[in-house]
Amino acid sequence: MKINCKIGQKSTQISFYKDREKLLEIGGNGLFIFDEFTVNFLQELPRNYLVIGRGEAYKRLEIVEEILTKAVESGLGRDAQFIAVGGGVVCDITAFAASIYMRGVSLILIPTTLLSMVDASLGGKTGVDFRSYKNLVGSFYPAEEVRIYTFFIDTLSTHEYLNGLAEIIKHSLLTGGKFFSKITDRKEEILNRNLDVVEELVYESLLIKKEYVEEDPYEKNGLRAKLNFGHTFGHAYEAITGLENVSHGEAVAWGISRALEAGRLLEITDTHYAETVSKLLHFFNYSIDTKIVDITKFLEALKHDKKNINGLTKFVIQRNLADTYITELPEDIIIKSVM
Amino acid sequence: MKINCKIGQKSTQISFYKDREKLLEIGGNGLFIFDEFTVNFLQELPRNYLVIGRGEAYKRLEIVEEILTKAVESGLGRDAQFIAVGGGVVCDITAFAASIYMRGVSLILIPTTLLSMVDASLGGKTGVDFRSYKNLVGSFYPAEEVRIYTFFIDTLSTHEYLNGLAEIIKHSLLTGGKFFSKITDRKEEILNRNLDVVEELVYESLLIKKEYVEEDPYEKNGLRAKLNFGHTFGHAYEAITGLENVSHGEAVAWGISRALEAGRLLEITDTHYAETVSKLLHFFNYSIDTKIVDITKFLEALKHDKKNINGLTKFVIQRNLADTYITELPEDIIIKSVM
């Protein structure tokens, strides 16, 4: 299985592997970036590598500088390749480092979490957090190659697995059709992590993301913004709950429910559809009914989102399955939908 | 006078102004970056601005972070404009900061030195120094607009004026024709800084650079590398002499002489042409006959050039006026041409 995605003037080739074949195989002068966890999956270590800590706390400029320093010390030139082996943080910061080392060197992403397989790996958005804003600093820099090793999915905790599954469900809600049916029809196998089924979902998810990314590579025309479904509510929820207490996927699942609830309150969203999604998210054990207690703090966090510096908060709302649009929301509706 | 330069998918509009009109005039939410010198040329200060120190020592990531922090604190969003008012350092770091703030905001360059007018302002190469390598970290990010205010040329020291003139001479050697004749025919006026003549030279220089940049926006096909004429020798000379002791332009003028000498030793470069260039550079008081004493240190510095990390040192050589190619050089020729 292969996917080729054109992003602006570049293109990303995605390949799927069941086994560990080619995991460390690269062409030229490579610098591998692992996290503390993924480095354990190697039988041998490559010549040039760096291990960084796990988690959002490492997604900052200082770590990018560590990567750049390692590249200089390894004598890597313009023909170098940076290879990220890890989750979203490792992928995002390695990609950012690759985009600015000598004004851009080659980049390979080997995402090891379900979330990074369907999210960070494709689309060219790189970034680090800055002054408490997520991804405030970054670039558009697509990987030349993405390698999906499905065996990594079996290494994930349930928490981490559900973290990625939420993005897959989001993609299925945006596109509907057979993709959504597959998730509802085969939900037990998905919950039990049948790798063949999950691999199909990853593939379908990436096909959807490819569509959005190719049409709107630099997030200019608003199309790609639909991929933020569940994210406006979700990011604010993450911000006030703390990233250690709620995973991105849980926050997105919660955010999807809140967006559907807001749409329902505005009599835009089909009630039956909202209930179907709600049941599905419950089936996968997402805590989507959590109420916000400190509403002032929540509204403040909504405003603090990077997308809203000096602008209005936009929400992605669905009328029904695969029927999506972007709008602002009246404050009373926001409040009612989260309390 | 206007020039429009297409760089990859973007384009840069260059406009010339004799007066201070429009100096602080921008459309949206702007952040101005001045250096200690240029901030004095304003009758009033804009709402958001930052003043940074002068010189290469400020061309580093910490200063980029200062710019990004100021942008966050000023509440600037994706619609922001970063405006650099200064020399090459201010232009390069502001451009780099603009390229990574929210994955890229609008950029206006107002170069205030002759060197930055003809060099840093056009071409999209942004950068900061890193771990003692010049411009090791950066991006390709063309400005939307470049505003050339010729009155700034009168504010420059002789040293700084000659710093920029060397790049103009280099452009004229690459292209030959009327541009080169103008420099030889009107050299007294140029030395005496006749602003009308100098403005023409800036315009001609930018037209040449535009040609190279449009054909090879990302320095892929080697064409744009010809703009490095005089720079391989020059950068190594700068490195061992110290940036405080030799200006970039002096080093480039010296490097051009050394490259022509190397070509002459290889019996590639026309002797009469090499002498003509040598006379012209002497007329403008460039110290092009300086001998390298510590040759080991010099050869080391040549290898240390960022372009040569893990690669061979390439030199731009001319057979004659407007007849240029790129090659490696035998070490004995390098040594003979600088000692």
Terminal CA distance of chain A reads 44 Å
* Quaternary assembly: homodimer
- How many beta-strand elements of chain A? 11
Biggest interface goes to:
A-B, 40 and 41 residues
Mean pLDDT of chain A: 92
The whole-angstrom Rg of chain A is: 19 Å
Q: SSE order of chain A, as H and E?
A: EEEEHEHEHEEEHHHHHHHHEEH
Q: Which ranges of chain A are low-confidence, i.e. pLDDT below 50, for 5 or more consecutive residues?
A: none
The biggest sheet of chain A amounts to: 7 strands, mixed
Strands side by side in the biggest sheet of chain A: 1-2-9-6-5-3-4
- The tally of helices of chain A reads 12
| Strand content bin of chain A | 15-25%
Query: What is the overall shape of chain A?
Result: globular
Work out the helicity level of chain A: 40-55%
Q: Indicate the structural class of chain A.
A: alpha/beta
Structure description:
The structure is a homodimer of 339-residue chains. With 339 residues, chain A is α/β, with parallel strands linked by helices. Helices cover 42% and strands 18% of the residues of chain A. Chain A contains twelve helices and eleven strands. In chain A, the strands form three sheets. A seven-stranded mixed sheet of chain A has the order 1-2-9-6-5-3-4. In chain A, helix 2 links the parallel strand 5 (80-86) and strand 6. In chain A, helix 8 packs across helix 11 (295-304) and helix 9 (248-265) packs across helix 12 (331-338). The longest helix of chain A is centred in the middle third of the chain and has 21 residues, at 195-215. Chain A is globular. The A-B interface holds A 8-9, 29, 61, 65, 68-69, 72, 75-80, 96, 99-104, 125-127, 130-131, 133, 135-140, 218, 306-311 and B 8-9, 29, 61, 65, 68-69, 72, 75-80, 96, 99-104, 125-127, 130-131, 133, 135-140, 218-219, 306-311.
